[in-house]
Design a protein that fits this description.
It is a single chain. By secondary structure, the chain is mostly helical. It is built from 3 helices and 3 strands. The chain has a 3-stranded mixed sheet with strand order 1-3-2. A hairpin with a 4-residue loop joins β2 and β3. The longest helix has 22 residues.
Length: about 120
């Protein structure tokens, strides 16, 4: 196949990303199903789970856990949990405020992870 139709796989970082037990416990206690594999991170409403890239694709625990917590923030909005409109239009003031609140909470959690805060 000609080179313009594909790209070579990128080299994965050589060092394994360490586990941060406080964050792992936090995510486990939410009840979110998380599976690792592939190259994309997303919350899948149809399966009600979180798909994460292989751990080896992340170059640090900050990148891994901030991505995971971001996806947990999407997972938390499902109708059987917080019942946020996951397809909301940001024109709707209430939806925009909720979206901002969730983003701020995710940002706060990510900063605590980056400092390896044990008080989660």
């Amino acid at each position: 196949m000609p080179d313009q139709f594909f790209s070579r796989a990128e080299e994965l970082p050589g060092n394994p990303v360490p586990h941060i037990e406080t964050v792992e416990s936090f995510v486990q206690n939410t009840g979110a199903g998380v599976s690792y594999g592939g190259t994309k991170a997303c919350y899948r409403p149809s399966f009600d789970d979180i798909l994460m890239p292989d751990r080896g694709r992340f170059d640090s625990e900050v990148h891994l856990y901030s991505t995971l917590l971001h996806e947990v923030s999407h997972w938390s909005g499902a109708n059987r949990r917080l019942d946020r409109d996951l397809k909301c239009s940001l024109i709707d003031r209430r939806a925009a405020e909720t979206h901002k609140l969730v983003g701020n909470a995710e940002s706060w959690l990510s900063r605590r992870v980056s400092r390896r805060d044990e008080s989660l």
